[in-house]
Amino acid sequence: MLRPVSASSRATLTLALAAGAALGAAFPASATVGYFSHGYGVQAKGIAGAAIAYPKDSIAIAANPAGAAFLGDRFDIGVEVFSPDRGATIAGNGAGPDQHYDGSDTEFFAIPELGYIRQVSDTLSLGVAVYGNGGMNTDYGTNPFGRFGAQGAAGVNLEQLIVSPTIAYEFLPGHAVGASLNVSYQRFEAKGIGLFAGFSQDPAHVSNQGVDDAFGYGFRIGYLGDITPWLSIGLNYQTKTWSQEFEKYRGLFADQGDFDIPAHYGLGVTLKAPYGLDLTGEVQRIEYSGVGAVGNPVNSLFQGVPLGADNGPGFGWDDVTVFRLGANYRVNGNWQVRGGWAYVTDPIPADQTFLNTLAPGVVQHHFTLGATWNSDGGLELSAYGLYAPKVRVDGENSIPPGFAGGNANIDLSEIAVGVAVGYKFGSR
Q1: Less Cβ around it within 10 Å: N or C end of the chain?
Q2: What is the DSSP string of 111-134?
Q3: What is the pLDDT of residue 5?
Q4: Dihedral sign, CA of 54, 56, 60, 64?
Q5: Residue 417's CB: how many other CB atoms inside 10 A?
Q6: Range of the structural domain that residue 263 is part of
Q7: Taking the model in full, what pTM does it have?
Q8: Which pLDDT score is estimated for 135?
Q9: Tell me, what CATH number does 226's domain have?
Q10: Which residues lie below 8 Å from residue 114, measured CB to CB, with a gap of 6+?
């Protein structure tokens, strides 16, 4: 049976879409799983991002759109304060002495997100999520490429915003499928890497061109089902998000500025244990190698293939596998506490660290804690914290002889805290 859409629900949906448009104007960068976010929604982030088989709020449809079928009518809005500590060391290089460079002149980033779900019938739900897919920022006051002739401060800033209108259908009791259209907005800027213009097919569009932006689209599908009363399984698949080219940086990125968002997919399992304890885990695969600007090795650059060319040099990232484990404990009718751990394989090979001083997305372990308080009237308040200890990747013959050899060693650690407000308009 179709349910009428109330005035308050229409107003909330309008607010969600308007806020999504506003966020698109100024969305900050983050990086924990390569350059993806470690999770979507403050409650999911408290269990290390595990949401494929365990949706807790409306933003979880960013992980699995089928989750919208089981969350009722609700609205969520949250913000995360994210602080990465990134840096690089040039060692054994003939152009100058060993030196460490701090890439964290910009220390803090505020990352908002929101979601809304409306159950329009007993089996059909609609929703929208607005969130930061990820990004990368480095900001070197002292340029690590200065010894090679680069001028000024150096760094890059990549930001990715996704707006995901979603539909979910419960085709059998406890079993649902869902689909989302992902509308992407990306921004990018590079500075202080003008020395690479001499290696580009378009030298005027490599560095210091200001902020460029690009829109794109892709699709996400998912399944979520109760296999038994105590066991649930979730599956998701997201296509590559096909994006416009970064015209201002068509001399930097392979294929004349092409920068799609990689495809990824995953499997999640949730065990509803006794005494209010839920255990969830998942495995995810992100196909960074499917995007030339990210996945193509840089080696061809020093073999005569210019930056920006068809199938040209990139950052040399490998595909990654992410493992997540989380536990959520319902203390009583008003309180839940949670914790989680995630591990991601290293995307950056040791021989690809030179260019990746600009994008050292190498953290691997993530440790999280979180909690939610809910009122009897449907209000929820949630918070979480994350710590990702420092990982250093030492280069192996990563600086070519033309730049006097040696190695670039890159490192990254992260901390983050987040808060969110949710409201349930009704229950199933």
Answers
A1: N
A2: EEEEEEEEE-SSSEEEEEEEEEEE
A3: 45
A4: positive
A5: 16
A6: 7-424
A7: 0.92
A8: 84
A9: 2.40.160.60
A10: 16, 19, 20, 23, 59, 75, 76, 77, 78, 129, 130, 131
